[in-house]
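Researcher: I'm preparing a figure for a lab meeting and need a structural model of a single chain. I don't have an experimental structure, so a prediction will have to do for now. The sequence is pasted below. Please return the structure as tokens so I can convert it later.
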Amino acid sequence: MDLGLRGRVALVTASSQGLGLACATSLAREGAEVTLNGRDAGRLAAAADTLREHVPDAVVSVVVGDLTTREGRGAIVEALPEVDVLVNNNAGPPPGSLDDWDEEALVAALRANAVPAVELIRAYVPGMRARGFGRVVNITSAMVKSPAADMGLSASARAALTAVAKSVSRSAAADGVTVNNLLPERFDTPRQGVMVRRRMAALGIDHDEARRQIVADVPAGRFGRPDELGDACAFLCSTQAGYLTGQNVQLDGGAYRGLV
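Model: Understood. Here is the structure written out token by token.
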């Protein structure tokens, strides 16, 4: 299936590894001109090389900028004034408990997982609407719909972004712009490695046992592959997905227990 993305300009934030890089790779494979973003120039250059290894004809560039700062976001928009596709991604806040969730922690979570995405939406969606085409995909978390006891920061910050995204989706749809969220859970990424090590330390178990326990409640019986989320992202950005907007699409191997 041709997703109609050839020549489209795409920005994927926090894309030097993991799910962000997977989304960028899938978009590049469909012919989009992809810009990677991150804070470390060396890691970004390595990520761009990795992408080119997987997609030899990829058109890929990089922009260094810390999403959590105005200066970083400004550098991104200055380097890339217009995009057709915006994929918002950033590392999630740490697990914890109520004792950890003071004002400083709450504000930090919002600055990392809500404010950057909303600011980039504000920067790019007006141009998308004027041109009659645009795709925004926010990589949030399954915690938005089913928060774990230790993931209150992730759930709250990303729920805030979800609310803004829903509002924008309703106003932008008539101009050919869609806004959707991908809600991953238990993907085999560096973030999952953090969760594995946390369980190892808490329970005094080895690496393999920690992974086995984490995946035990996933009906699919395995961790998700980053490329699976990347391809789902590419579809949400396609011309075929023009009537799909304001949605929260879960990728969790069937782990979510609710109906809606």
